[in-house]
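quick q for whoever's on today - can somebody do inverse folding on this one?? i tried earlier but teh output was garbage lol. tokens:
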């Protein structure tokens, strides 16, 4: 049965029955400041501001995303320096300033300016350090913010290098070139040999595809030769059989790949190539005139044009270490499109390089649909929209990619169907619209903030308790890495050897069963790793990641699951997870103590 979702009074509100959680605590008095510092266990990021300029709003969507991704142990606040004596030196400052406070009110980092990438890397680094400190795996480095105590002339001078400063790396795409192994070389069966020569010279093949060009495609590709004496013959030759088109790069950055490949190709004329560069590809494999075996882009601009011609949906990889943070956005396949085109649309999403992080089938009443789309209440299409959105089940997806929000909206095309068909005929809204239905078939979040709100609405963050059992304890680092790759945040962890009483609490639903004695003996035989995992739909997601209880069944049905990879039998099946929110909270209390008093807690709905 599809999940029934009830919606609040506006798109900014969360699921009914839950407290509205404020992202940043607002601190305005000395007492509030002291209480704030003493009450937080983890990392607290404080936006310190002067009253005349106000807090920094530009970072809210970033902080909201980090909170969703990192989970418990990360807190945000704003503090007005004018009214708090401990923040006196931050008064009358216009530049945004963020204080990173570890457990107990210890200052561990300061970031000035609304620098998104720097703030994100600093949050992740300091939260990871603080978790290690709290787990007894590291020592905290406390600093003093002396910059504002220095004379102005020193502030204007070149700062000393800070070995703890995270170097900001500008996101950079790899450089590339496009090569075409022409029809004569392909038909002669030497394409693989030419590819081997390319790779032996240090070229990296990013993508390759064999295809036969049509007359129109060949004429368009070689348009610069139009009007020349050999144009028609060139087009006929390039359409005489399949060619192999290859996207090449080299090294980490691809720098100089266009020029390097031109050197490997040799002169355009085969005879000249044989005379001047006998080891070049054209000298070795060309036969004359334009039948010179291989084409290569003559500039980075040409490479970009040719890549767009052959592979318009290919996403050029980033230079390692400069990758931008992965974004998430909400996608909705509306009822009519979901009923008719679900598989085709999902195929288009995968082709465009999106990762489907989460998905859920949803049904709404017309009233709920009206609440969700309340911002459109005054629009002429409001009644049609809410009628359609309540006409049957639809699919919501969390899509992940480095440019997920903009990339998904580009793929969708214009909101008005007629405009999409006219201006973007290949867009999803053009391809999958229904005759006679004025509502377009798909939805996408408008920006990062909207994406955060909408994802939280459909996929609210929750906690679960995960246990790595004694037989898999030695593989804990590998398993934790897989957990983090799946989008979970490990907000707390603890290694422990269980007592009989703890085992009874952990497996309370099994303590009267025949196998409980064997289970109890095994679980007390060595150390286990307990973790609190935070993510949207964490309970369901973790249970899916574990796989079937019986590892032999897991190996048949879910080969990538943790129990398939690390389990031995039904008892020694590597990992355990809680089955409900109530059980998770019970175990968190037992193994990690009472939650902090101002930690946001869910309140059960009706």
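ok took a stab at it. sequence:
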């Amino acid at each position: 049965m599809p999940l029934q979702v009830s919606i609040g009074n506006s798109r900014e509100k969360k699921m009914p029955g839950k407290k509205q959680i404020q992202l940043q605590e607002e601190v305005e008095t000395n007492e509030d400041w002291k209480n704030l510092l003493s009450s937080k266990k983890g990392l607290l990021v404080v936006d310190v501001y002067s009253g005349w300029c106000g807090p920094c709003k530009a970072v809210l969507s970033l902080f909201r995303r980090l909170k969703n991704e990192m989970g418990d142990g990360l807190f945000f606040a704003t503090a007005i320096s004018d009214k708090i004596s401990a923040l006196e030196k931050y008064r009358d400052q216009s530049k945004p300033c963020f204080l990173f406070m570890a457990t107990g009110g210890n200052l561990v980092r300061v970031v000035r300016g609304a620098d998104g990438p720097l703030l994100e890397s600093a949050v992740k680094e300091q939260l990871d350090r603080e978790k290690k400190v709290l787990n007894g795996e590291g020592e905290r480095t406390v600093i003093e913010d002396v910059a504002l105590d220095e004379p102005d002339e020193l502030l204007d001078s070149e700062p000393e290098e800070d070995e703890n400063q995270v170097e900001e790396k500008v996101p950079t795409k790899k450089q590339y070139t496009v090569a075409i192994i022409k029809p004569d070389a392909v038909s002669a069966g030497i394409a693989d040999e030419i590819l081997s020569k390319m790779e032996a010279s240090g070229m990296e093949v990013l993508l390759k595809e064999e295809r036969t060009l049509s007359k129109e495609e060949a004429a368009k590709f070689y348009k610069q030769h139009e009007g020349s004496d050999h144009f028609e013959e060139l087009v006929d030759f390039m359409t005489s059989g399949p060619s192999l088109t290859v996207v090449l790069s080299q090294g980490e950055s691809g720098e100089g790949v266009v020029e390097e490949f031109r050197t490997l190709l040799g002169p355009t004329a085969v005879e000249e190539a044989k005379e001047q560069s006998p080891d070049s590809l054209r000298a070795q494999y060309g036969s004359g005139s334009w039948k010179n075996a291989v084409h290569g882009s003559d500039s980075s601009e040409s490479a970009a044009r040719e890549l767009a011609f052959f592979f318009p949906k290919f996403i050029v990889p980033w230079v390692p270490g400069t990758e931008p943070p992965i974004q998430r956005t909400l996608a909705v396949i509306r009822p009519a499109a979901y009923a008719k085109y679900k598989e085709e649309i999902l195929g288009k999403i995968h082709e465009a390089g999106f990762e489907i992080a989460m998905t859920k089938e949803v049904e709404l009443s017309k009233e709920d649909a009206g609440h969700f789309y309340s911002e459109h209440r005054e629009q002429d299409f409001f009644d049609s929209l809410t009628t359609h959105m309540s006409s049957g089940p639809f699919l919501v997806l969390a899509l992940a990619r480095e440019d997920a929000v903009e990339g998904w909206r580009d793929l969708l095309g214009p909101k008005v169907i007629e405009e999409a068909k006219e201006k973007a005929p290949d867009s999803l809204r053009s391809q999958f619209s229904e005759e006679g239905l004025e509502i377009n078939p798909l939805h996408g979040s408008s920006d990062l903030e909207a994406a955060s709100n909408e994802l939280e609405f459909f996929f609210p963050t929750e906690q679960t308790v995960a246990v790595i059992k004694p037989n898999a304890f030695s593989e804990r680092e590998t398993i934790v890495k897989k957990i983090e790759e799946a989008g979970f945040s490990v907000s707390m962890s603890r290694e422990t050897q269980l007592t009989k009483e703890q085992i009874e609490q952990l497996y309370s639903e099994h303590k009267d069963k025949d196998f409980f004695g064997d289970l109890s003996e095994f679980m007390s035989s060595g150390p286990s790793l307990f973790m609190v995992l935070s993510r949207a739909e964490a309970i369901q997601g973790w249970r899916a990641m574990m796989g079937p209880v019986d590892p032999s069944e897991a190996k048949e049905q879910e080969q990538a699951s943790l129990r398939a990879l690390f389990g031995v039998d039904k008892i020694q099946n590597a990992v355990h997870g809680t089955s409900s929110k109530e059980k998770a909270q019970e175990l968190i209390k037992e193994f990690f103590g009472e939650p902090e008093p101002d930690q946001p807690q869910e309140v059960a709905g009706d």
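fwiw The chain has four domains: 3-146, 177-310, 327-458, 462-592. also The first strand starts at residue 3 and ends at 4. so keep that in mind when u check it
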